[in-house]
């Protein structure tokens, strides 16, 4: 019995497929299967029932999963002490929300490459809910998204927060004068926002409840750049990250809705699977804490939002 065999068994048991588990370990599916077969041979018991379309754990396999997790946890702690950062290598695929991708993600990746030169870094940018599911499935090593997570298998550490400002163009297409716009009037205006699967829905729902407002129509879009464009074109009102909003206000493209109470800051977290004790996770967490900065220049703002 070897540590590699135990790793192959554990990740195959806790990921949604053998192929995802193999990617996580940076080996081929055939190598993963070979290690599991070798472990089964040494134990004298089948750990997976392979007669079904997808391999499923046998009762023996289910029984051994928590014990294997414990062994790997101790092994991970040993390696974190024994290995230096320069020894961390392999493939690292992590997830980040679009707001992170448009601001401080390049800074974080640069710091990761400097600290871990032998690591192949593959970022995936998307909506928080999908990113978190990828983490649960074992497709991602860690994530930096709005949080914290409510899933029992995911650990979350708050590392910062994003702030937002309510804005509109100077004159909406409906002919409304926005200088005197009140929160109650949002009921009759289009609201432009990210979809319900995004982290911002948490603070938006709280705000709407506090103001007792129910927008007549919500235009949702998954892209911050498109949201900014729709608001600038006068198709509705909405909120943008504070640094971007203030840059557009300064350039007289948008106006702040000063009668609208501020949204509460949206906390962002570093998330990882509770069963993942690799030195990589600890190092990436340290770098994320040092890198987070939602006031960083944005590509869609032409570098003007400081």
TrEMBL record:
Belongs to the LysR transcriptional regulatory family. The keyword Transcription regulation applies. PANTHER family: HTH-TYPE TRANSCRIPTIONAL REGULATOR, LYSR FAMILY TRANSCRIPTIONAL REGULATOR. It comes from Pseudomonas fluorescens. Keywords: DNA-binding, Transcription, Transcription regulation. SUPFAM superfamilies: Periplasmic binding protein-like II, Winged helix' DNA-binding domain. InterPro entries: LysR_HTH_N, LysR_subst-bd, WH-like_DNA-bd_sf, WH_DNA-bd_sf. Residues 1-58 form the HTH lysR-type domain. One of its GO terms (molecular function) is DNA-binding transcription factor activity. The keyword Transcription regulation applies. This is LysR family transcriptional regulator.
């Amino acid at each position: 019995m070897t540590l590699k065999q135990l790793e192959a068994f554990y990740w195959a048991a806790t990921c949604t497929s053998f192929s995802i588990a193999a990617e996580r370990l940076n080996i081929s599916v055939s190598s993963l299967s070979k290690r599991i077969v070798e472990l089964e041979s040494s134990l004298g018991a089948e750990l997976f029932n392979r007669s079904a379309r997808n391999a499923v754990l046998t009762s023996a396999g289910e029984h051994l999963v928590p014990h294997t997790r414990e062994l790997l946890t101790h092994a991970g702690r040993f390696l974190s002490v024994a290995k230096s950062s320069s020894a961390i290598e392999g493939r690292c695929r992590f997830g980040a929300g679009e707001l992170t991708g448009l601001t401080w993600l390049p800074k974080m990746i640069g710091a990761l490459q400097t600290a871990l030169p032998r690591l192949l870094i593959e970022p995936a940018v998307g909506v928080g809910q999908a990113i978190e599911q990828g983490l649960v499935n074992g497709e991602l090593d860690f994530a930096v998204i709005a949080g914290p997570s409510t899933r029992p298998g995911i650990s979350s550490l708050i590392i910062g927060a994003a702030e937002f400002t309510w804005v509109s163009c100077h004159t909406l297409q409906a002919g409304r004068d926005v200088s005197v716009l009140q929160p109650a009037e949002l009921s009759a205006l289009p609201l432009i926002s990210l979809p319900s699967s995004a982290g911002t829905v948490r603070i938006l729902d709280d705000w709407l409840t506090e103001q007792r407002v129910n927008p007549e129509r919500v235009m949702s879009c998954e892209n911050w750049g498109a949201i900014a464009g729709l608001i600038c074109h006068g198709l509705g009102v909405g909120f943008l990250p504070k640094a971007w909003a203030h840059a557009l206000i300064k350039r007289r493209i948008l106006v702040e809705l000063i009668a609208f109470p501020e949204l509460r800051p949206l906390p962002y977290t570093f998330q990882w699977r509770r069963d993942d004790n690799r030195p990589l996770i600890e190092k990436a967490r340290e770098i994320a804490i040092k890198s987070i900065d939602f006031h960083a220049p944005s590509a869609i703002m032409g570098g003007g939002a400081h």
